Amino acid sequence: MTEVTGCILAGGLARRMGGGDKGLIRLGGRLVIDHVLDRLKPQVSQTVLNANGDPARFSEYGLPVVADSVEGFAGPLAGVLAALEWARDNTSAEWVATAATDTPFFPADFVTRMLTAIEAAGADMACAASDGRHHPVFGLWPVRLAADLRHALVEQDIRKVDIWTARHRLVTVEFAAEPHDPFFNVNRPEDVEEAERIAQEMAA
Predict the structure, then answer these.
(1) What is the pLDDT along the chain (204 residues), one digit of tens a residue?
(2) Rounded to whole angstroms, how far apart are CA atoms 35 and 23?
(3) Is 129 exposed, middle or buried (CB count within 10 Å of its CB: 0-12, 13-18, 19+)?
(4) Whole-angstrom distance, CA of residue 82 vs CA of residue 98
(5) What is the rounded CA–CA span in Å between residue 94 and residue 54?
(6) Using CA atoms, how far apart are residues 138 and 184, in angstroms rounded to an integer?
(7) What are the φ/ψ torsions at residue 200 (nearest 5 degrees)?
(8) Helices marked H in the chain — which ranges?
(9) CATH number of the domain enclosing 87
(10) Domain tally for the chain?
């Protein structure tokens, strides 16, 4: 089995939720991050959280909490870099799979399909897509490119995921958006109600 480190990207500012952690809101009587962990953990060899601020708010999970090493809330690439460098320094994993902290329904075969697509295409990395939209936060990244990404972020001030991935061989993996988009994210207060509806449909 290919060793993959899983990383939940929880380092955002959650402005549309009024600040705070989107993963710590309640969905179906549990926190959104609990749903994300349920999805990610069976797919990976070990799991880490990328989060800025006080790591104690995640202490109950017993997981490593890694902050961005690039200052100024540099976006999801900073979280990817934090995960790549943690995996390089603490595991023998060749890959890091990232998932957003506010996306409780992403596919249970996400990592397997990404690995298969990379191998089939001879690609360096993979990102997910659904319903005509790309989801670069959901990616499978090679640990060997940690130094390359650090250079892009620190020396070249690159912040957009697609600018960095365009430098490498990227394969986009399309996931079905029916009966619901698996990458639906709880991004605004009004999204909570819709997430509750999806959760109830899935339970039924």
Answers:
(1) 799 999 999 875 443 333 457 777 788 788 889 999 999 999 999 999 999 888 998 999 999 999 999 987 778 999 999 999 999 999 999 999 999 999 999 999 999 999 999 999 999 999 999 999 999 999 999 999 999 999 999 999 999 999 999 999 999 999 999 889 999 998 777 788 888 888 888 877
(2) 9
(3) middle
(4) 11
(5) 29
(6) 12
(7) -65, -40
(8) 32-40, 76-90, 110-121, 146-150, 161-165, 191-203
(9) 3.90.550.10
(10) 1
Buried (b) or exposed (e) across 51-76, using 16+ Cβ within 10 A?
bbeeeeebeeeebbbbebebeeebbb
* Residue whose pair of structure tokens reads 């989060």 in the numeric block: 51
The residue type of 172 is: T
Q: Identify whether the C-beta of residue 3 lies closer than 8 Å to the C-beta of residue 94.
A: yes
Contacts of 185 (CB under 8 A, 6+ apart): 22, 100, 102, 103, 191
Q: Whole domain around residue 69: which residue ranges?
A: 4-203
Separation of alpha carbons 15 and 177, rounded Å: 26
